[in-house]
Amino acid sequence: MYLRPDEVARVLEKAGFEMDTVTPKTYGYRRGENYVYVNREARLGRTALVIHPTLKEKSLNYADPASDIKTCDHYTRFPVYLVGATQDHYGIPHGFSSRAALERYLQSMFD
């Protein structure tokens, strides 16, 4: 079982991220130069945390992504995915099975 989006949001806030964007599909969080999204549509939490694509290689040292990419027109602070018909923005989705695992990941990635 993965953390639900609201649980991921609470862990982000505890880690010093500040919510600055709310849409029907996402919460956007900033801490310094770093930006992440919480995928509000991830009911089971498997793709609840979405990181910037440029962090993919670094992230592989700490967690496996849930899939190669996650596209959404609401990820406006991320680049546009130019393959396919839609041209949506994209990021790298992750799911975490515990708050402690997410906290460790955030500390490794963003501290």
From TrEMBL:
<dbReference type="Pfam" id="PF09400">
    <property type="entry name" value="DUF2002"/>
</dbReference>
<dbReference type="InterPro" id="IPR018994">
    <property type="entry name" value="DUF2002"/>
</dbReference>
<protein>
    <recommendedName>
        <fullName>DUF2002 domain-containing protein</fullName>
    </recommendedName>
</protein>
